[in-house]
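Deliverable D2.4 — example input (structure tokens):
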């Protein structure tokens, strides 16, 4: 398959399981997360997609997810680019806090604004708008040209860095992207036109 872009959110991490804000903290996958990554690989293997290149973040949970997927599809030697431009949104002072504790400290409404507004960052952290401001230029400079050149590319990253990409690919408004939740280990397969627009999109878990 040519001109293919696959996006996968990492499998469940240790801090997802504990309901903690994670952001740039470097935590590993749980057993469930490992299984989710392997299942994502099995779904992609069933599609018969052979990748030319992989991209992931500087964080271990995304890197391990990609490694496990490539193991499942028999492409462990694939060239992979790791870059912090694809890192999760930086949650600043919220990182490492339990989400319920954060609500007690700052109030339900304030924490919800930080989590679900487009352009209001938590203290010391990034908003989704800030995250998009580093993810999208990287996508346009490094990832999109590879797909336009006819390659099949896989990106294993994070909920918010991938939301920023899906926002552009699916032409979502700021309000629409705030309602978007990407499941862990669920591959989204895009086939792009020559101009980078989407010709076809499929969620392999549906």
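Example output (designed residues):
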């Amino acid at each position: 398959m040519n001109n293919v872009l696959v996006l996968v959110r990492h499998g469940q991490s240790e801090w997802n399981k504990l309901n903690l804000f994670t952001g740039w903290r470097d935590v590993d996958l749980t057993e469930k997360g490992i299984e989710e990554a392997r299942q994502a690989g099995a779904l992609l293997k069933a599609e018969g997609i052979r990748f030319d290149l992989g991209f992931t973040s500087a964080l271990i949970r995304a890197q391990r997810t990609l490694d496990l997927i490539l193991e499942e599809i028999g492409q462990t030697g694939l060239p992979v680019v790791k870059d912090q431009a694809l890192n999760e949104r930086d949650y600043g002072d919220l990182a490492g806090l339990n989400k319920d504790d954060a609500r007690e400290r700052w109030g339900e409404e304030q924490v919800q604004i930080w989590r679900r507004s487009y352009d209001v960052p938590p203290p010391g952290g990034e908003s989704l708008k800030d995250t998009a401001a580093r993810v999208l230029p990287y996508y346009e400079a490094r990832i999109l040209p590879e797909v336009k050149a006819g390659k099949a590319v896989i990106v294993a990253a994070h909920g918010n860095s991938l939301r920023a990409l899906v926002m552009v690919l699916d032409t979502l408004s700021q309000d629409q992207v705030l309602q978007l939740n990407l499941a862990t280990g669920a591959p989204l397969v895009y086939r792009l036109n020559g101009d980078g627009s989407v010709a076809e999109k499929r969620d392999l878990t549906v």
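The chain has a mean pLDDT of 96.
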